[in-house]
Structure prediction request, 906 residues.
Amino acid sequence: MLARYVVRRVVASIPVVFGVTLITFGLLHATSGAFVPGLELNPNLRPEDIIRIRNNLGLNDPLPVQYWHWISGLLHGDFGRSLVDGSPVLRHISDRLPNTIELTITAILLGILISIPLGVVGALRRGSVIDNFFTFLSVAGVSIPSFWLALLLILLFSVSFHAWGLPWLPSGGAESAFGGGDPIDRITHLILPATCLAFVYIAIWSRFTRSSMLEVLSQDYVRTARAKGMSERRVTYLHALRNSLVPLVTLIGLELPGLVSGGAIIEIVFSWPGVGRLALERALQYDYTMVLGLTTFVALLVVVGNLLADVIYALLDPRIRYA
Amino acid sequence: MSRDQAPGEEGYRKFEDFLKHWSRRDFMKNISIGAAYTAFLAGGVEFMEACANAGSGNGPSVAAKKGGHLTQGSISDIKSMNPVLQSDTASAEVIGLLYDSLMNTTASGELRPLLAKELPKTSSDGLTYTITLRDNIKWTDGSPITADDVKFTYDLMFDPQYKAVNSPRRGDLETYVQSITVKDAKTVVFQLKKVYAPFAVNQLQYGILPKKVWGSLSPTDVNTTDLNTAPTVTSGIFKFQKWDKGQQVTLTRNDSYWQGAPYLDTFIYKVVADGVAIGNQLKTGEIDMGQIDPAVLADVQGNPDLQIVNFPVAIFTFYAYNQNATAKVAQMFSDKAVRQALLYAIDRQGMADSLYFKQAVVATSSMPPVSWAYNKDAKPQYPHDVAKANSMLDAAGWTKGADGIRAKGGQKLSFTMITNAGNKVRENSLVAMQDAWKQIGVDATPKLITFPQLVAQITNDRSYDVFLVGFSWQADPDQSALWHSRNTAAGGFNGFGYKSSNMDKILDDAVATLDQSKRKQLYFQMQDILNDEVPAPILVFNKGIWGMTKRVQGVTGGDFGLGTYTQFQNKAWMKSAFVADGK
Prediction:
């Protein structure tokens, strides 16, 4: 049953991926006009050079032909080569991906571990001082721009703590430039960016858990469970919590592409050598092929993330039919 | 290198370079070493283009100490460690430590021998450069560096058999070099096609590669070999250890370096997000040195753990009057009195102090003050003098109308000024100029456009009235790119249409002789003419600023300090640099 469901979902994903590649390709073409902005503006290129370069790059082919070249490479796992340095896009991704995953997995784990208890406590003690305090934190978490929070954290825990002679946290990078790289060193570098990133997750997910929990607690089956004389603890954790987590799974599943791109701003502020920073750097350098490759890669992850969420969803909620 | 040399076969490579330059940071960082078409500056970080001789600074007051590491922060990661392919500043900084070149430049832009025993011996016709290598130079594997290695490296850059190598130097070398021959193991002869004085400064500073390591590679392999990202046999003051992409390059001491091993054990080139992060990491000691963004200067200046050094750079900010015959303002700007009066009306010292946070000096000529060709007595000078500006315009027949705007023969002294949006200093400069000129009855309106639009206006469209932009110079004092009439052609940098046969002759003569005293004399003349004609007045020369932790010693001062020209080719100061705590 489950296998059939998964196969159906995978098949349904194919047109989505195809559509994404088409839109990405089309959009990048539309924005760049001449494929690469500024080609015609380069004062050092003669008209014949411009024509030759466009021919070399296959830019004078009709758009569908260009798309076909690219998509057929993609089907063979070839994401193309960077326009800026000529090396394969996939190698860049594989160089940076471990760092990004280290950061985002840590942040997501922190987010889950903190947000669910906060949400449950908030729901169980609705309207209490502690609930109001959590609400305040969530609103703050959603409203504070993460780059600003990041800068403040750096200012306080790195620069100021260092100036005050206190133990301080590194302000950037994934490890110390000199003599770094051991697990402790990496963890100290991870603390600030992961906290920053987790802050937003905590803010959103704890609200979600809270409202979902409240809704479930008012359901008939919870009343039935209580009526059967089940202990309040069993009602809360076995029936209510489990069911209230179903929508949260979707939400977290949607964060899977965020594993790659979600932390871009944090990566930049903390000089974190990840994929998000790579994407921004290369976008600013008009590394067209890199942006195309990265966008497609992230799009694939979104599809896979949704798929995984759907499967877990089905496992958690027996009401969801595999059909 | 002026832009009027045809790009030759290297269009694609140059195009790739060009792409890199569109990244704002890299655009500006590449300028001082890259091809001249990048010479216009989008600005902002241009301050970070360091730097010239730091007159003062931390001389080695403490006895030099061996050992320890030095971490330099950079806002760009390197792209390649191959001197033949390199075209960006970050890569050049690391390559300069790994591979020595034939020549090096001092802070004032003069040539110094490096792998060569002495300055090139030139024939009396100026076409033959004979270079003799030092006896004691060797690769890190112990074998000697020979003339074969030199020839091989230059072959990679421009010989037809290596056309597939993505060398950004092909166009230039093809233009000047007839042949390169190995005379004996230590002697190599460059035969030029024509006399071109900037040749040695511009073309003899590329790192030399070991032929025995690279010689077996096919031309296309040269572009993609792992040696580009992890060189094995090198010749510089440091050896390659590792490159963590997006993070750092780590180099270690080369004990067999011909000048003797450096004091430092390890040099780390660390990638940092931006100017703010450089400031923060200097404060926490995560990096030891880095270029300071003027925006964070006030923040780091008072820090007791840091030393701040600043110095003039070979970058100026200027504005230009459109004198192209097709321009509607051509007639008013062809009046020298107007051009001069407008410059008198501007308080450039005030601009340097308030808009540039004192990180700029008022220009007294078009030549960077650090250059050997700088004429400090260039005449006339233009101190802020509103009364003089007014009387000059009165005398020239520009009289104020009822609206307070001066006019002559029905034409009002009214025009627009363009610069690139996003560069606050430049935006504010236009406002300051608008205000200053309003006081003498001139109506100027600032207009902001994107940087690519600005470059297109200057080099091609030329439908503006006045533009304001930055320009970066190389070590050689040749300024044909801006002032020669041939560069008024479409695509040229003389987009303001300044044409003077006298100036053309001076510029041509100055590159057609190798006699430096004669060149100097010609460039002095050039500066006097430009100061008199003011076709495009230079407002200020910018400064570069470096921040260092207190433990860094022996970096600045002397001929080889942090400098405009020495910095990127070869960090000569690395020989004397040490860290006080030896860690």
In short: Residues 82-228 of chain B form a domain with the Dipeptide-binding Protein; domain 1 fold (CATH 3.90.76.10). Confidence is low (pLDDT under 50) at residues 1-38, 44-60 of chain B. The CA atoms of residues 243 and 249 of chain B lie 4 Å apart.
